[in-house]
Amino acid sequence: MNKDQVKGVGEQIKGKVNEAVGKATNDPAKELKGDLQQGAGKVQKAYGDAKEDAKDQAKRHNP
């Protein structure tokens, strides 16, 4: 697991918390912030996943 994957998951968690707080307090701005954080976290994790896949493939082809 690389730093992009870890940061991405962390951002998704923060986003879920902000979304839940926004719903609980009826704060649409906080809810939207949470949604955006989750989206950004998913993108960052996907980037990290792609980096890991590329590294794994490189290891397989160059032992």
From TrEMBL:
Gene3D superfamilies the record matches: YjbJ (1.10.1470.10)
Domain CsbD-like: 4-56
InterPro entries: CsbD (IPR008462), YjbJ_sf (IPR036629)
Region spans: Disordered: 1-63
Biased composition (Basic and acidic residues): 48-63
Similarity field: Belongs to the UPF0337 (CsbD) family.
Protein name in the entry: CsbD family protein
UniProt source species: Paraburkholderia antibiotica
